[in-house]
Design a protein that fits this description.
This protein has 493 residues and is an alpha+beta fold. Among the domains are: 144 residues, Immunoglobulin-like; 147 residues, Roll (CBS-domain). The chain is 24% helix and 22% strand. The chain contains eleven helices and 21 strands. Strands 2, 3, 6, 7, 8 and 9 form a six-stranded antiparallel beta sheet that branches. Strands 4-5-1-10 form a four-stranded antiparallel beta sheet. α4 packs across α8. The longest helix has 17 residues. The chain is globular. The chain starts with 16 loop residues before the first strand and ends in a 5-residue tail after the last helix.
Length: 493
């Protein structure tokens, strides 16, 4: 079976042509299905800034192709594109000319069909890019990757260090918003229902008897609880979650961690910051302690026993401040114009040739949910690309997805070993995710400039970008917020 983006045949050195398909008529969930997909359904993603327009890029061989769209479960065709009636109903058609002339460096324009074709075109940006990724045959050497000088890196790092050292946590506070704190005596099950209902991935924890904030409850806690529930011989049953408090869970988690480390059980101190702390100190706390957020807490001089939770600081918010500050003076950061493939950051497919300190974590859609949860913990990542057997990106499973199991108590009848990742993905809320965006994952090309990557990562809810091959959507690597800050601050993994 042929899948879009898979170069399963290169007879005669034939080029496969990146072709963009667009559905501009709205919907919640849109797929494309055609002769080039074996009539299986492949997802389309909303265009950034325009949630009613969906697109995808498929690599097609020269020839005649038919396709349809599946919009919210209903088969549709684009009446503004050339279409015919076939044995499977009304379908759109496209003719890709034989491509003896489609050879680098001169690339011809595609043949125009009768009728308007504004919603479907060859991806000229990908083809004509100076860093194009078109492949002619196996063994074709990759095009030269531009390099970035050590001097440019050092200049950029110095400017970032200066900015973060002189700007304070106060600048992270939004003009309006909500910060939720949960009492540690709240039952675990109720706490995760609150996280899901409020559309937030984590919340600070308040200990009333002690009169202080003592921790953060996140999706990672729910993952660990699900694994505990699913493990053989577990002492924690689903019924006990009704009365099992956050405090009891945190104590149990602390004990489990101490057993793994071979040390005595000791309570872990809350990693926190004050409003006058520098952005640099907050970033270092996040990177060095392996946490995703740091509560910003104010202790009033008049009543220091009454702390006030101001904000949950994250790398995303700090990166947004950096992008805003350097937006009008990009020359002060020379690395901003460099393609990310030229910068030593991220985790890459070994075939790309970039040295990794850790492997690229990916899963097939039929993998058990238990394997996905284990990998999220062991690889210390926030999300995992779900790929076809040829590493074609299908979806992403994230830590935050686990909290959707709180809806309608789905976790009460989920078997982690028998439920596949694909089935778990179908349980997510649609079309809006926990972070208020209808995009499940975000991608970039390895030829994208560094500033473009930073801008995308600074958006709420975006913690990492999947690097895909231009025109093929084959996963090449991952760039996370942690990767960016470790590079900018020269902090080792």
């Amino acid at each position: 079976m042929y899948h879009p983006g898979m170069n399963y045949s290169r007879e005669g050195g034939m080029l496969w042509i990146p072709t963009r398909f667009v559905w501009p008529y709205g919907g919640r969930i849109v797929f494309i299905s055609g002769s080039f997909t074996g009539w299986t359904q492949w997802p389309m993603t909303p265009v950034e800034g325009c949630s009613t327009v969906f697109q995808t890029i498929c690599s097609l061989p020269p020839g005649y192709h038919q396709y349809k769209f599946v919009v919210d479960g209903e088969w549709r065709h684009d009446e503004h594109q050339p279409f015919i009636s076939s044995s499977i109903g009304t379908v759109n058609t496209i003719l890709i000319t034989r491509e003896s002339e489609f050879l680098p460096p001169m690339l011809s324009q595609p043949m125009t069909l009768s009728g308007p074709v504004s919603n479907m075109e060859v991806d000229n940006n990908a083809i004509n890019s100076p860093y194009r990724m078109v492949r002619l045959r196996e063994g074709t050497p990759p095009e030269p990757i531009p390099t970035v000088s050590d001097a440019d890196i050092e200049i950029s790092r110095h400017q970032i260090d200066l900015f973060m050292s002189t700007h304070l946590a106060y600048e992270l506070l939004p003009e309006s918003g909500k910060v939720i704190a949960l009492d540690v005596e709240l039952p675990v099950k109720q706490a995760f229902h609150i996280l899901h209902d409020q559309g937030i991935p984590m919340a600070a924890l308040w200990n009333s008897p002690k009169g202080k904030f003592v921790g953060v409850l996140s999706a990672l806690d729910f993952i660990l609880i699900m694994r505990e529930l699913g493990s053989k011989g577990s002492n924690l049953t689903e019924e006990e979650l009704d009365t099992h408090t956050i405090s009891a869970w945190k104590e149990a988690k602390s004990y489990m961690n101490s057993q793994v480390a071979g040390q005595g059980c000791a309570s872990k101190q809350l990693i926190q910051a004050g409003p006058d702390d520098s952005l640099k100190s907050i970033v270092l706390k996040i990177l060095q302690n392996g946490v995703s957020t740091v509560p910003v807490i104010h202790y009033p001089s008049a009543d220091p026993s009454n702390p006030q939770l101001l904000h949950l600081a994250s790398l995303s918010g700090i990166l947004k401040c950096i992008c805003r500050f350097f937006k009008h003076s990009p020359s002060s950061l020379p690395v901003l114009q460099s393609p990310i493939c030229a910068i030593p950051l991220g985790t890459w497919d070994p075939k790309i040739g970039t040295q990794n300190e850790k492997p690229l974590a990916m899963l097939r859609p039929n993998a058990p949910l238990s394997v996905a949860l284990d990998l999220l913990i062991q690889a210390q990542v926030s999300s995992i690309p779900i790929v076809h057997e040829h590493d074609f990106l299908l979806d992403v499973y994230s830590r935050s997805d686990i909290t959707t199991l709180a809806k309608d108590k789905m976790y009460t009848h989920i078997n982690l070993e028998e439920t596949s990742v694909h089935q778990a993905l179908q349980l997510r809320d649609d079309p809006i995710s926990l972070f208020g965006t209808n995009q499940r994952y975000f991608t970039c090309l390895r030829t994208d400039p560094f500033h473009k990557v930073l801008e995308r990562l600074s958006q709420p809810g975006v913690r990492r970008l999947i690097v895909v091959e231009a025109g093929y959507k084959r996963v090449e690597g991952i760039i996370s917020l942690g990767d960016v800050f470790r590079f900018l601050m020269a902090v080792k993994q």
